[in-house]
Amino acid sequence: MKVPIARLKSSVLLRDSVIYGISNALYAGFPLFMLPLFTILLSPEDYGLIEFYRILSMVLIPILGLSTVQSIIRFFYDLEETDFKVFVSNIIFLHFFNAIFGMIFLFSMSYFISEKYWSIIFYCIIFFLSNQIIEILLSIYRAKKESKNYFLIRLACIGSDIILLYTFYSLVDHFDWTFRVLPNVFATSLVGLVAIFILFKNKYLLKFDKKLLVTAIAYSSPLIVHMISGYILNIGDRFVILYYLSEEDLGNYAVSYQLGMLGNFLFTSFNLAWVPVFYEMLKKNELSRIRRIKIISYYLISIFSVLMLIFIYLLVKFSPFFESYAIEMGLVTIISLAYMFISFYKFEANYFFYSKNTKRLSIITLGGACITICINLLLVQNIGLYGSAIATVCAALFMFLMVKVKSPKYEKNVFQD
After folding, report:
1. pLDDT single digits (tens) 53-82
2. 3-class state of residue 66 by DSSP
3. Domains in the chain: how many in total?
4. Range of the domain at 49
5. How many CA atoms lie within 13 A of 80 on its CB side?
6. Where are the transmembrane segments (predicted)?
7. Which of 336, 345, 290, 295 minimizes the C-alpha distance to 312?
C-alpha cells in the first residue's frame, strides 16, 4: 500500500503545483505581462511612483498586520476546527483595527505630507486591508489543499484588475501613476469584500479570544523583522538608487529587476503547494522523500533560471516594448542569480517555520538586509545600478548558506520534540 499512497501524494502535489503555478503566472506574472504596455504609456518617473506604491503596500503588511497571516497554515495543524476558526477570526479583527488606526494616523499627518504621496499612502492602506483579507482566505484554502478555490479567487483578482484597467484605458486621455494604482486598489477591494462574505459564510467571523490572538502574535511577531528584512532585500536598493541616482534610473532598475525575478516563478508556484505537504511529511518522518524532492527542485530551478534568461534576452533584443528603457542583460543576469539563491533559501526556511523558530529565521533575514544596504551604500555611488544587483546576490547567497547550515538541526529537533 505504501507505493500507491506515495504515488497519490505525489500526484496531489503535482496537481496543486500546476494549479498554483497557473495562479501564480496569472497573478504575480500579471504586472510582468502588462509591463510592455506600462513602459509605452508611462514615463520612468511615473513607473517609479508605481514602484513606491508597491513598496509601501508591502511594508504595511508586517507593520499593520504584524505578519499574523503567516501563522494560519502552521496552526491549522495544531488546532481543532472550532479553535482554528476563532484563531482566524482574531487575525481578521486585528487587521481591521490596525487599518483604522493607520488611517487615523495618516489624516493626522496630512499637513506634513505632500498631496501626491498622501494619496499613495491612502491607497496603500486600503490595498493592505483588502489584500490581507484575501490572503487569509487563500491561506485557509492552501492548508486544506483546496487549490481550485484558491485559483478562482486569484482569477477574480486578475479579472477585475484587467476590466478596470481597460475601463481606465478607455476613459482616460492622460496616463500617469494612477492608471496602474487605482484599478489595482479598486479590484482588490472588490475581491476583498467577496472574501469577507465567504469567511463569514463559513463561520470564520465568530468571536474574540485573547489567548489565541496572543498565540498568533507570538509566532508571527518575529516575522515582522523577517518580512521587513525581506522587503529591504527586495526594495531597499530603490531608496539608495533614488538618493544617489535619479527617478529615471529607478524606473530602469525596477523593470530590469522584474525581468530578473522571472526565474523565481517556478519555486514560488511549487512552494504554495509544497508547504502543506512538507508539514505532513515532517510529521510522518518522511525525510528521504523530502531530500529527494529538494534535490530535484534545485536542479529544476537552476535550469528554469537559465531558460528564462535566454527568453528575456530575446524579448529585450527583438521586441519594441523596452525602447524607452535602458535594460542591461548583465544586470538582469545578476538579479536572476540572486533569486535562484533566494529560492534555495526559501526551501530550507520551511524547516524554521515548522519548528516555530521564527526568531532565528528573522535574525538570518535581518543579516541579509544589513548586507544589501551596506553594499548598496558602498557601490551604487561608484558603479551605479550594478552595485544594487551585486548587493542583492551577496545577501541572497548569505541567507541560503545560513539556513542550509541550520536546517538539518531543525530537521532532527522535529522528531525529538
Report:
1. 988 888 888 888 888 888 998 898 888 888
2. coil
3. 1
4. 2-416
5. 2
6. 21-43, 55-77, 89-114, 120-138, 150-169, 181-200, 212-233, 253-275, 296-316, 322-341, 361-379, 385-403
7. 336
